[in-house]
Design a protein that fits this description.
By secondary structure, the protein is mainly alpha-helical. About 55% of the residues lie in helices and about 5% in strands. It is built from 10 helices and 5 strands. The chain has helices at about 1-50, 55-70, 75-85, 95-110, 130-135, 155-165, 240-255, 260-275, 280-295, 300-315; strands at about 120, 150, 170-180, 180-185, 200. The strands form 2 sheets. The chain has a 3-stranded antiparallel sheet, with helices on one face. It has a two-stranded parallel ribbon with strand order 1-2. A hairpin with a 2-residue loop joins strand 3 (about 170-180) and strand 4. Helix 8 (about 260-275) packs antiparallel against helix 9 (about 280-295) and helix 9 (about 280-295) runs antiparallel to helix 10 (about 300-315). The protein starts with a helix and ends with a helix. Mean pLDDT is about 90; it is low at about 1-10 and about 25-50.
C-alpha cells in the first residue's frame, strides 16, 4: 500500500513538473511576441513618420547656420563687425562674432527687397510671420523679378526674429518706433559693458535708401522693454516647395558674402524692379554700372554679376 502511494506521488510530481515546464515555455513565447510586435511596429512606422523632409524648416536653418559659419572668415563681414564694435564702443571680444554673422546674414535675406525677394506692402496682418509661410507654401516657380511673399513691416520683423532665434541667437524682438511702424531690435548679450540695442530695419519705411543694419534713425531705448520674440510661427517640420528651398540656398550662395554697401545697392535696385520703377533690363545695366563704384571684393563682384545676369535672363524670357 505504501509503495503504491509512493508511486502515485512520483507520477503526480512528474506531471506537475512537466506542466510547469510547458507553462514556462508558453510564457517565454508570449514575452517574445510582446517584445517583437512593438519593435516591428516602430520599424514599420518610423521611416514614414520620423525623418523630416530635406526641404523643411529644420534643414533650412541648418543651411543658414552652415553658410554663416563660412562667412566668419569673410573679409567684408569681419570689417562690418569691427566697425560695429567701434561704433558702439565695445570690445570685439565682448560679443559673440558668430551671433553677429547670423543676425546680419538673415537681415539681408529677409528684409524688404532682400535676396530672398520679400516685398513690403500694407497687409493688416498680425505681427507674426504665419502669413509669409503660407504664401511660401505655394511658390512653385520663384523668379528673380518677383517677390516670394508680400508682407507688412511687423510681419517682416517677426519673420526675421523667428529665424534668428531658430538659428540659435537670442534677444531679438519687435520695436515700434511709431504706432504704425515696426522694426526688429537685437540686444546682444555682452560679456562686459553697458547693454546696447541694435535696430534691424526690415523695411525702408521712414528711412532713406542709404539706411541699413544698425541705423540710428530710430532710438530703440524709446521703448521701455524689447520682448524677445519666442513664438514658434511654424514647426521645424514645415515643408517648403523644393524650387523655393533651392532658390533660397542659391541666393545665399550668390549674395551672402557681399559687403554691406554692395548689398544695399543691390537691394535698392531689386526694390525698383518690384515696384516697376525700373525694368529688369534697366536694373541689370544699372547694376553693372554700380559694380564699378561699389564692388571692393570678389564676393561683391559675384553679387553684382549674379544680379545682372538673372535680370537679363528674365528680360529675354
Amino acid at each position: 500500500m505504501n509503495s503504491g502511494i509512493h508511486a502515485g506521488f512520483v507520477r503526480g510530481r512528474n506531471r506537475l513538473a512537466k506542466r510547469l515546464s510547458e507553462l514556462r515555455l508558453l510564457c517565454a513565447a508570449f514575452l517574445l511576441i510582446a517584445l517583437f510586435l512593438p519593435l516591428r511596429s516602430l520599424a514599420q512606422s518610423g521611416p514614414q513618420n520620423s525623418p523630416q523632409s530635406a526641404t523643411d524648416v529644420s534643414h533650412l536653418i541648418a543651411q543658414i547656420r552652415a553658410k554663416a559659419a563660412t562667412l566668419e572668415t569673410n573679409h567684408g563681414m569681419r570689417k562690418a563687425f569691427h566697425d560695429f564694435a567701434a561704433e558702439h564702443k565695445i570690445a570685439p571680444d565682448s560679443i559673440r562674432y558668430s551671433d553677429f554673422v547670423i543676425v546680419h546674414l538673415l537681415f539681408e535675406a529677409t528684409r524688404d527687397a532682400g535676396f530672398w525677394n520679400m516685398r513690403w506692402s500694407i497687409t493688416d496682418q498680425p505681427p507674426n510671420s504665419d502669413r509669409i509661410w503660407s504664401q511660401w507654401k505655394n511658390v512653385r516657380a520663384p523668379s528673380v523679378t518677383a517677390p516670394t511673399a508680400i508682407a507688412e513691416c511687423d510681419e517682416l520683423s517677426a519673420l526675421y526674429a523667428f529665424l534668428v532665434e531658430r538659428a540659435g541667437v537670442k534677444s531679438v524682438g519687435l520695436f515700434w518706433p511709431y504706432p504704425n511702424h515696426t522694426v526688429a531690435v537685437w540686444t546682444p548679450r555682452l560679456l562686459a559693458g553697458a547693454p546696447i540695442r541694435v535696430v534691424v530695419p526690415t523695411s525702408q519705411i521712414f528711412l532713406t535708401e542709404d539706411d541699413t543694419f544698425d541705423t540710428r534713425k530710430f532710438d530703440p531705448w524709446h521703448q521701455k522693454t524689447i520682448y524677445e520674440y519666442t513664438r514658434r510661427d511654424v514647426s521645424d517640420s514645415f515643408e517648403l516647395p523644393k524650387p523655393l528651398f533651392d532658390f533660397f540656398l542659391s541666393q545665399l550662395d550668390e549674395y551672402a558674402g557681399a559687403s554691406e554697401s554692395a548689398s544695399q545697392q543691390i537691394r535698392n535696385l531689386r526694390s525698383s524692379v518690384f515696384q516697376n520703377v525700373l525694368t529688369p533690363d534697366a536694373a541689370a545695366h544699372e547694376a553693372l554700372r554700380r559694380e564699378n563704384a561699389y564692388a571692393r571684393s570678389e564676393p561683391d563682384h559675384v553679387a553684382f554679376q549674379s544680379f545682372a545676369k538673372g535680370l537679363l535672363a528674365a528680360s529675354v524670357n
